[in-house]
Amino acid sequence: MDPATSQERGTTERVLTLLGLLQQRQVWTGPELADRLGVTPRTVRRDIERLRTLGYQVQASQGVGGGYQLGPGQDLPPLLLDDEEAIATAVSLLTGASDAIAGAGDAALRALTKLDQVLPTRLRHEVRALSASVESFGGGRTPADPDILMTLAKACRDQVEAGFDYPSAGQTRQRRVEPYRLVASDRRWYLLAYDLDRDDWRNFRVDRMTHVSARTWHYHPRPAPDAAAYVQESVASRVYPHQARFLVHAPADTVRAQIPPSAAVVRQRGSELCEVISGAGSLDFLLMHVLLLGHDFEALDPPELRKRCHALAEKLLSAGATTSPAPDTEEP
């Protein structure tokens, strides 16, 4: 190991130890800290200045009963992270790397809150850019490029235009948008943004974006839809040639446990009823999926959906009434 690297690591470990000591009791004198750390009082003063440079509030007082103490709000375990490490940690928490574990989403949110509390002030603004610009409906999504997520999150926070290449109708085109929110589904990351060339709200899959950049042109926020609800309804229904709406005789929580969030929107309609909105390539496909949920239901929209119910019912009745002749058997 390089001697300079070894010395730097030793300094970092000593500074962490110093922070731990400052958290153990309210006030420490310089000689007491020097004795515990095995260094001179002068080294203690230098380490205190390192903590202040990192943004930690270390107060010093003179006279009897004086010494060093941490300022308010500094009583959580310290995190000595540089800018890239802090941003990478925040992105990892928000991308739901552990969504396969029950309750990991809540744990990630708690961890992100603690991260915000213990980071130096100069890094909090960057980390909060993600937490304030992200919504979700579901977990277990595939990872997205953290650099793209951070670029878009900053653009949402700073209210500046963004540009990227995006495939559409077999061609890749440059898109100019006013980014509003990043939305995480149970499968993918999306950006809800106002498309300046189409003069309307659009959602874009982050994994399809290339050459993503934030610009310096600021925009005035427009009245925006509920980001998570808009994107969920879009990916579950509006992108398909056929959309349908059902009234299902079961609690919303029960049905949500049976249908992935990206496959249908489930809205509560009383304690024992819910509305299911979904899309597919055919109405028959939608009917079969709702039928397989195992609950009583009513077809609401579109009007031809009821005709398809009757046609499908006749096919099922016909299939159930048909008896095939028993196969011939030969005597051995």
TrEMBL record:
GO molecular function: DNA binding; DNA-binding transcription factor activity
SMART domains reported for this sequence: HTH_DEOR
A Pfam match: WCX
HTH deoR-type domain mapped to chain residues: 11-66
Source superkingdom: Bacteria
Source organism per UniProt: Nonomuraea dietziae
Keyword set includes Transcription: yes
Keyword line: DNA-binding, Transcription, Transcription regulation
Keyword Repeat assigned: no
Protein name per Swiss-Prot or TrEMBL: Putative DNA-binding transcriptional regulator YafY
